[in-house]
Design a protein that fits this description.
The chain is α/β, with parallel strands linked by helices. The protein is built from three helices and three strands.
Length: 94
C-alpha cells in the first residue's frame, strides 16, 4: 500500500486459494499476467480477476515475448477492466 492505494500483481502464477481472500482487502489495482506460457491464460486470468474483485483489473504480459497485445487485452474480463497500452501511463487514484 502506498498513499492509501492498494496494488496486487499476480506475477507468473496460476489460480491460488488466497485470491478469494484478497477480495476482502478492497484492492484498488490488480495486475494479471496472462500470456498462458508460464502462467495463466486469458480465461484463467479473467476468473482470477473475478475472485480478487479489485476496483481496477489490468491485464499485462499478454502473449509470450509481448507485454501488450490489444486483441488479447480485449478478451480479458474483470471488475473495472482497465487496458493500458504499452508506453502509456496512468495515475493511480483511490
Amino acid at each position: 500500500m502506498s498513499d492509501g492505494i492498494t496494488i496486487y500483481a499476480t506475477g507468473d502464477t496460476s489460480t491460488t486459494d488466497q485470491m478469494a481472500e484478497l477480495a476482502e482487502r478492497n484492492i484498488d489495482y490488480a495486475f494479471f499476467c496472462c500470456d498462458g506460457k508460464y502462467n495463466m491464460d486469458i480465461p484463467e486470468a479473467s476468473a482470477c480477476a473475478a475472485l480478487v474483485h479489485a476496483k481496477h483489473s489490468i491485464p499485462y504480459h499478454m502473449a509470450p515475448g509481448k507485454l501488450f497485445d490489444a486483441q488479447r487485452a480485449e478478451q480479458f474480463e474483470g471488475p473495472g477492466k482497465l487496458v493500458i497500452p504499452a508506453g502509456e501511463e496512468i495515475v493511480l487514484e483511490k
